[in-house]
Amino acid sequence: MGQLFERNIFTTGEYVEQFHPEDASNPFHRIYERKRQEVIAAARAFLGENAAARVLDVGGGMGRIAAPLATSYDVTLCDVSESMLTLARTAAATAPAGARLTTQLVDASKPLPYADDSFDLVVCLDLLVHLPDPQAAIDEMYRVLKPDGLAIIDNSNSIPLWTLFYPSYVGRRPSRWLRTMRAGGVLPEWAGIVHHHTRGEFLRMLAAAGFAVQEERAYGPVICPKWNLAVARRSL
Asked: CB count, 10 Å around CB of 72?
C-alpha cells in the first residue's frame, strides 16, 4: 500500500514537500488558483477600504491568502508548521506594497489563542479535513469573529465522483482507486489523518456553530465538486 503518513507530518515540515498548489503537475492547480483569487476578492469586497480591519487566516500555510490581504489589512496567519510560517513571512516580505502580517504557531485542533470578538474576517481553507474535530474548530472561528463578521471556509467533498475527473490524482492501480473511492476521495497514504465531508455535513457544522451561510461556491466538476466553500456571517 506504500507509505502511510502520520499526523506529525504537519508539524515536522514534511508537509511542505507534499503541498504544491501552484505546481502545474498538481491536478488541481487551476481550481486552487481560482479558489484563491475568488477568496481574496470576496474578502476585499467585504472589508472594503477599512485599513484597520483585522483578518485571521486559520491554517493559512504559506500565506497564499494572507500575504496579499496583508497589503491592505492587519492579518494574522496561524499554522501548526513553522516551515509554512517561514514561507508566509517570505511571501509577505516580497509583497509590492509591503504587508502587515503577523504569524503565529498555533494548533487549530485546540482552542485558538485569541480573545472573543477579535477579527472582522476569518479565512480557513484546506484545513478542516486535517482536523480530528472540525466542529470544535468551526466553533472557535465563530467565537473569535466579531458580531456580523464574515467567515470564508471550505471543505473537501467526501462523495468521491470528482476523483474520476482527475485520474492523475489517484494513479493507475485499480486497488488504489478502490481504496480511494471507499475512503471518500482520500488517498490511501492519508488514511486515518484526512477526513472529507459531504456538503450537507459541512453546512450542518457551520449551522451548529451559529453561522448563517450567505453564499456557497463549488470548485471542480459541476456534478460533483471537489471543494465546497461557504461565505458565512456571524449573527449579531
From this structure: 19
Question: In the chain, what is the greatest distance between 2 CA atoms, to the nearest angstrom?
Answer: 53
List the CATH code of the domain at 19-158+194-234: 3.40.50.150
- Give Cβ neighbours of residue 64 (< 8 Å, ≥ 6 apart): 21, 36, 91
Report how far residue 15's alpha carbon sits from residue 18's, in angstroms, rounded to the nearest whole number: 5
96 pLDDT higher than 80: no
Alpha-carbon dihedral 32, 36, 38, 39, rounded to 10 degrees? 130
pLDDT tens digits along 131-162: 999 999 999 999 999 999 999 999 999 999 99
Percent of the chain whose predicted confidence (pLDDT) is above 70: 99
Alpha carbon distance 115, 228 (integer Å): 28
Q: How many CB atoms lie within 10 A of CB 93?
A: 11
